[in-house]
Amino acid sequence: MTPRPRPGGRLVRSYVVTDGRARPTRNTLDLITLLTAADDLPPTGLTPEKRRVTELCRHGALSLGEVAGHLGLPVSVTKVLVADLMDSGHITTRAPSPGSSYPDEQGEHPPTARRFDAAILQEVLDGLRARL
Amino acid sequence: MTDQIPQAVTWGLAAALLATAVLLLRQHGITARQRRRNADLVREVRAREEELRHLVSVRLPALADHPGQDVPVIGPRDARIAATEYGRHLERVLALFSVAVDHAHARADRSAKAALQASMRSIQALANEQQISIAEMQDRHDDPDVLRDLLEIDHTNAQFGRRAQAIAVLCGSWPGRQRATSPLIDVVRGATSRIRDYRRIRVNGQIDIAVESRAVEPVVLALAELLDNAARHSQPDTTVEVTVQTVHNGACVVIDDAGVGMDAQAVESAGRLLDGHRTVDVTRLGDPPRFGFAVIGVLAQRYGFSVSVDTRSPYGGVRAVALLPAALLTHLEPDTPEFPARPAPSPEDIPRRAVTEGITEGGLPKRRRRTPRRQVALEPEPFDAEEPPGRSPEENARIMGAFARGTRFGRAAGRILDDDVIAPEPATPHDNEGTPHA
Hints:
heterodimer, A: 132 residues, mainly alpha, 3-stranded antiparallel sheet, 3 strands, 8% strand, B: alpha+beta, 5-stranded mixed sheet, DUF742 domain-containing protein (chain A), DUF742 (chain A)
């Protein structure tokens, strides 16, 4: 899903994107966390990658995994960026849409769907068809 | 008669004395001339010796020390000797020596460059390979601790690759690595990615100008050398300010450091290297060798941008200005995400273009063929070899289907034919046996 980097590698390396940090300021993010951009904050003073995240999330919610894919950055690096944007108030997160994740008895969110859900798959299929 | 004898003797003696005197006088003149001449000759021999010593100890070493460079040639000591045949021969020796030194030097430089280039190329390839592995690892691992280590390795590897690349460029190789047209800001940040103190670089300025694909890598390399110099020659607690702005016919990147600056001599020698008109002598870059300005000079000359470091920065250090002409730049199309996020359409909104044909066992809709099933043709369809490339998937499917059907049909027909051949076979020996009887 992530576009493979060109053979030469990314021009701007990940450590420049995160300013050398590897640990996001919060550890509540995972691949399916949905991100929405706050409309009221102008993207001034943001790095190009952060500005792109806010642009991507302006029109509606997008999962962190998808954002990473669009940026062509590793998910772990995207998490650092998104956590920064949450700190500055540019991005708000939403709980994953019901159905894509299943809280079990302990209230934990397992990383992958455990059971087969025809409704979600039907939605995915419809979404894909809408692009045809 | 007897008194005549002494008189004659006297006359004779007088004549002899006179002759002797004349001869002595003449001899004296000759001797004096000879002495003068000897003295002259001795002086000249000394002068020649001096001249020869001057040639050997001063002029030739001076030439040997600066081969192929426009150093003022040291002239002869004595202008009078220079005008003689001897002087001209000395000049000829000097000229021959100069040619020999230049040849030897050029040969040494060529082989040094070739050796360096070959080894740097393989090191560069390894660095690139490693960079790809690191990028894959970054994609694969989600643990912040692992990521931190990977970022460190990536950073070191990027600097390592840059060094190899710079030396290879200096030795006449191309910067390599074709890159996509990239925003100037990203080019500057790409250069930042390749230096040690990347966290001290602050990039200011917002312009929507991009660098043409072919110039991305060279500009990145040149800027990386400038940024590295700036960061290296300033205090670790200061920042290096980079300003990107448009100018009359291009764009410029201004790099200011708050370091110690350069003295007039350093600025002058940097200017000579940066203009890139002189061939760089890899064997004379100092110890440790300083590649930076020489590499920038080579790249600037080859790609047509210019770099100067002769201004003082308002922060006290050096201000380096890289001027990129419009020929290397292009405008960036507005940055629109290819698949912008939007609310998921509800199933009712979706036009049911594809009609489902029933449901699978798992409750999923079955995919329907896009084209109605074709009646199996008995005849293979003519295959047009001249058909231009770029067929649609349907067309491809049709052609491949026709081919498959054709071969299937051909095989079936072959079997029938074989049966036909095999069937009358028992009869043939009989026929053969029959003919002699006939």
